[in-house]
Every structure is written in structure tokens, then in C-alpha cells.
């Protein structure tokens, strides 16, 4: 595909700077005037008709010109009679022969040619990119289908009562999803294939400036009783820096990033951990060796019991209650399609990582933190909740005032519809209440007599 884009750009540049040498052709052709032929109309001479002679005798035609006074010499001063006689002659009209403006040089149609080539290149890239992404998704599903069916009772759910499509669901031209359920310790697993937008020519051109990779993101929804209280993340340095700013749970519970070398990982990884006890339990020698072995395709491991997605960036919309949270395990892997020309080889590289996911699920299910760590985690969550209530107190008070005002308005409308006497009493009551509210408050003291 890269070679195709380079060739297309080369053609566009050559067409913009080169001129075609074509033999010059006469741009103007003389048009031969066709001889004008006047129709030979032969009229019958009916002058000998006695009826016509009688009519001519009776009819008198007055040949008076109503504009004759304009030719009177005594009417105007300096009247040129000679010029008048010259103008009476028939004017000579010369019609110029104008050729058809047809250009025969290709250099005059450079913009049109570039536009046509651009349209053809866009549609060719669209169909090629769409088929390429569909091929990658089909290969991934066929490669992992048997392993998924061994671990889940349901592989592929389209959300309908009677499942019509038990395979991948196409969300966009570059995104495919797969839902699996029916396994212990988890409610389900969502697989999301995020491919490069190969169907978009602008994205492919941007690929030269900001290259991105094909990704597989797997999110496991754990049962509440099968995961303890902690937040943990291992990610590449670039992803860790972005997640610490965007993810709500990481930015609140463990914003500090630690180098992966402290835990035996390669320098390309960073670690976020709320509890040190959890880091040492998860990152044992076997797990560290496995992560280092597939360090080129592992992008992120995110385990959290307070996962709520991205942080709210809209400051105008202040939430009045805490967002809903889930206990999830999120795994993000990259597909090395840039290193392998064959898509089957690229997807086979990440195939062992699916078994690694099931091992992590079983380990998290068995993991139980100590009482001290549990108490520390509970204090952190209580502190976050109190800070949230303080920041949203004004918003909640304003919302309560608005609800009270709306309730009062509805009560007034109800009273106005029922009875005028009730309306008068309600207005008097409201007036007294307003007067008491405006009156200064005084404290009454009782003095005992001596």
C-alpha cells in the first residue's frame, strides 16, 4: 500500500510540473460563408381583376410621416441635410468569423487531471483498506476461535434473543467487536479489534507523520466477589503517561509512575500501583519473564476495581453523583503487521497472549490482600468520595433549590385552578412569610424581678 501511495504522489507531482509536447494545430479555422439565396417567390399578377381595381379606386392611402417635422430645416438651427441623405443609404454590416475556443494542449487541463486522479486514488484506497481490515479480522477470529470456545460457553453474542451472527460484529470499517460469556470468576469478556483506518486516504497519508499500529483490546468484567480492592497498571512509557492524565482511576488512586526496572521489567515499561503488596504479588518472576518476552506487542495491563473510564473534561457539566465503577481487567496488545508481510504470521505472534489472559484471571481471583492494605485502600476510597462531595456541594445545593422552586410553582398553579378563595389565602400566607423573612431577628430575654 505504501508503494501505491508513493507512485500516486509521484504521478501527481510530474503532472503538475511537466508539459506535453504535441504538434501544434491551427487554433483558428476560417468559416466559409455560405451563399445567400433569396427565395424565388412568384406572385400571381391579379392587377387585371375587376374587384381589385374597384377596391383601389375606393381606397385612398395617405403616406404621411408623423416624424416629418424632424427633417424640417426651419425647425432646427444648424440642420445638416447632406448628412441626412448619406444616412438614408443602407449600412454595410461586416460579420467577423470567430473560431470555436477548443484547446488541444494537455497542459491546459492539469487541474482537471489531478482532480480525476485524486478521486480514483481515494476510492481505490477505500476498497483496498476495507478488504485488508476485513481479512485481518477474519484471520484473528479463525485463529482464536477454538481457544475461546474451550474457555467460554458462548462466543459471539449480537445482543438479540436468537443469535443470528455468532462471530465478529463490524462496528466501523476499522473496528470489530466480539462478546464472550459463560465462564467462572467473570461476567463476560469483550474483544475489540482496532485496526488502522486503511480505508481513509487522509489517515494513510498521516501514517507517514504519526504512525499507529493495529491493536487488540480485551476487557474482562470480573465478578464483585472475585476481585479484591486495588488499582494496578503496567504499560509502555508513552501509554502510561497518557493514561495517568486521562484515566479517572489511575489519576486519582495511583498517579505516581515508577520505572519498570524496579520490578525486573525492561526500561520500556512503567508501573502504576496503589498498593506495593499488589505489585509484588502480580509481578513475580514468571510474569516478569513473560512480559519481557512479549514486550514488543504488550502495550498495557490495567487491573482496577474502580474503573469508570476517562476523566470528565467538560468543566461546565459538574456531576452530582459519583460515576458508576466496575471491576475490570483490561489487556491491550499490538499486532505487528509492519514486521510481517503475511497477516497470519503477525496474528500468530500474539496468539499465546490469550492464554496469558486466562492465567491472569485465575491469579486475580485467588489474590487476597492483607488487612492493613485493605484498610489503606478503603481509606483512599473514602477520601476520594469526601473530596467529590465537597466539590459538588454547590452544584447539589443549586439543584435542590431549583427542585424546590419548581415544586412551589406547581403548587401555585394547582391552587389557582381550584378556588379563588384559596388563592387569596395562599397569597396572604406567602406575603406574611416574606415579611417575617425580611424582618430583623430579635432575641427575647426574660429578666427575673428582685
UniProtKB/TrEMBL annotation:
The keyword NADP does not apply. This is PAT complex subunit CCDC47. Residues 1-18 form the signal peptide. The lineage of its organism: Eukaryota, Metazoa, Ecdysozoa, Arthropoda, Hexapoda. It comes from the Eukaryota. It is a single-pass type I membrane protein. One of its GO terms (molecular function) is calcium ion binding. One of its GO terms (cellular component) is rough endoplasmic reticulum membrane. Residues 401-433 have a biased composition (Basic and acidic residues). Residues 434-450 have a biased composition (Basic residues). GO terms for biological process: endoplasmic reticulum calcium ion homeostasis. The keyword Nucleus does not apply. Belongs to the CCDC47 family. It is found in: Rough endoplasmic reticulum membrane. Its main location: endoplasmic reticulum. Residues 398-450 are annotated as: Disordered. Keywords: Membrane, Signal, Transmembrane, Transmembrane helix.
